[in-house]
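Re: Re: token formats

Sure, here are both.
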Amino acid sequence: MTAAMEQWSWPPRFDDGYFPQADSRYWFPHRETMPQAEREAAILARLQAICAYAWDHAPFYRRKWDEAGFHPSHLKSLEDFEDKVPVIRKADLRAAQAAHPPFGDYLCVPDAEVFHVHGTSGTTGRPTAFAVSQGDWRAIANAHARIMWAMGMRPGDTICVAAIFSLYMGSWGALAGAERLGAKAFPFGAGAAGMSSRCAQWLDILKPAGFYGTPTYAIHLAETAIKDGLDPRRFGLKYMFFSGEPGASIPSIRERIEDLYAARVYDSGSMGEMTPWMHVGGSRETPGMLCWQDIVYTEVCDPQTHRRVPYGQRGTPVYTHLERMSQPMIRLESGDLTVWTNDPTPCGRTYPQLPMGIIGRVDDMITIRGENVYPSEIEAALCQLPGYGGEHRIFITREGTMDEMMISVELAPERWERGEDVRRAFHAQVAAHLHSMLGLRSVIEIVAPNTHPRTDFKAKRVIDDRAAFAEMLRRQEKVSS
């Protein structure tokens, strides 16, 4: 069985010189299209191997599993994996690294074998360090090249990586995949003042085939290009793939980016800890995300019980590495929210799908008068409206028994300039549309173009600040009086 799965071995080994036929839809034809039952049998064998490996090399897992009464010898089925293996959380990783700095006692290779160090920014607490061995870096590059091939990118394509090159894994993972794919890697980066204008100039000169960044930055970059007299549709982009925030799977946002650039848009990305983070990622024919189960085993679970939810239902992804040996994550709870399905795919790959991508964070949910709302749903609703200026802010306060929410929405420049009547009409349109889409009434403020700052990284549109909420309320009362 496993012999037929291309480059499937333990420990993982990859042929860096391998390429499929140029006209092949698949990087690994059998692995990507095999019957699910056959793949799941191979995944079970790999889970048995990686659990035994972690038991032998990581005191962190021995301690966790002893507390849960689990031993790798107990693992006889995927149901056993779900029932007997406890989830781990980011807080567990931070605690392990605090007690055993710098990489925690879940590092399964000698310190001397660490090849790359990445991690979280640490702006809201202790940062988490990601230690990646050289073998794991090659596994990441191979996995990402394989998924980028599924999106349509090919050797020789120029791929612009327009994301911050720092500890952030997104930019480095995209670069590693582009290099392994045999593409012309263009690591432009992001973050410096004036960089968006320069990026637009470079895109206009190079005409790259591929682009990586966040959805928010792609929209900001297009706005900057247009302001500078450039047409993003003339950049020649064919493939734009994104991670870092929800959006690329939301039809209204995806269609907006596609219209701005005349390019295909693909969603991808889970967590930095789970790199290769493209293990959930779309293909040229299949929108949303595929769960590439032979790279990272994904379960979508009830956030309380951590039992898999049926297909078609909403839950939080729980991830397990199948090709990582340095810091393998075994049942890492993401805290994200998604819906998974298991229908036949247009591309023929036999993986479960996340048709809506990552909806948001479980703890991002806002409860307004008994209705549960996610920030990504508000963004999707606004993107459906002609006249939306491209940015908004959600002000909430949690002083009462339920959250209260107000939304500040930019109006597009050409409409703002047409005067107060147009602004009032747009206000009414926004209020009615959000009520229709979300099932609740919100206090709406219409503001001038460029009122809210743009970003070349992950957008932060929810402001949980009583003072900011009160100030917006005062502005609304002044307008109403």
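Second one below.
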Amino acid sequence: MRIIPKEMQTLWTLFTAPVIWAVHFLACYITAAVLCARQGDAGFATVQLCIVAATLLALGLIVLSAWLAWRQWGFGRRDPPHDHPTPHDRTLFQGFATLLLSGLGFVAVLYVSLPLLFIDGCAS
């Protein structure tokens, strides 16, 4: 018995990385807003720690999603376009599209957490 199925025949896998990015985006900005409003500059280290933890979790989940998509695509052995009206080509297309969205989600999560490098405190 497998924990992770060999192939996933659902469109929900296509939306995994964008949903992870959206949840990460909201979590980072809500956490920063709430902790900075309550604690001021004294809580900025907590904000940074929370955002780093959320970023690492989100990146890990996106990498897992990309690996599953790469596996569904056939480990890159078949080049696109996958445009034939067959279940096999639909599966390959879904895997390739999910892989591309995972790459986009990975970069988006990095950009959301990028302000940590430039901001050194909560605004008063």
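The radius of gyration is 18 Å. Residues 44-72 form the longest helix (29 residues).
- S.
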